[in-house]
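Handout, section B. The chain below has 337 residues.
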Amino acid sequence: MKIGNLELGDRPVMLAPMEDVTDASFRLICREQGADMVYTEFVSADALIRNIAATTRKLEINPAERPAAIQIYGREVEPMVEAARIAEAAGPDLLDINFGCPVKKVAGKGAGAGMLRDIPKMLEITRAVVDAVKIPVTVKTRLGWDHNSKIIVTLAEQLQDCGIKAITIHGRTRSQMYTGEADWSLIAATKENPRITIPVIGNGDITTPEGAVEAFDRYGVDGVMVGRASIGAPWIFHDIKRAVEGLTPAPLPIDQKFALLRRQIEESISRIDEYRGILHIRRHLAVCPLFKGIPNFRPTRIAMLRADSKDELMSIIDDVQNNIIPSLANNSNNIQL
């Protein structure tokens, strides 16, 4: 699959942009585990042009994580154009426009998925951004605003006509948020549309290697994007890449998974500070599959998520790896490793 002149190989698997998740450390780990391309946390155009420090830091890309994309969002043409130029100067491999974020503070103000209620403005912004930068521009969006406006097949054509080089489609409407099942039939219909010549990337409910293989084989997409399933489990890319390449399954050993988790903690603390770094990593710890299915784990989970020092947190994780999990070795079907 190619996006402009960017070659991503056959059946690429990408890390979705996620606020408070896809920081530089996490992106690099996911690349090392097999992600073919990664995306920054989404960047507010308004905050970027005001030079808000927390926002401009999101533009920093480690050369080792390339290819990497910066994603921006906004609701007005001029701020989006200015933000696009600032983002381009940071040196990403491509620029992505977020027309898919469903959360109220974004979509409710007309940005993100809110643009699905104002298609002329969406197209105006897209054309202007494409014209403003020299790197490839892509779009991430949803099927439509609600059940009665699933417009993605036609919308993809319109966005392609604006000059984008690829489109990523999340198989839900904005009204669905993240509930229910993603509808991949309309993603497939977009890909099958003879007028569509740009790559179509599918997103939504890719949580297993088998699901990624089905996305390619059954729905014909050019690439798949993994989001929430990677939180607390960056090794999912290792498993998915082996599956889509037709290799024998070889799950990452549990000790390597724990090593990655510890690395995330260390790098989160190093990037911010001990207190805020631990707060940041709790989102990963809360959903990490290493801790799912362990009997009577609730008190340990609570202690882990309340730990406010690195030493305390690492001690709990050491105990889980070295004592709790080995004690369940004879009953390993109860836990998801």
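Note. The mean pLDDT is 95. Compare this with the example in section A.
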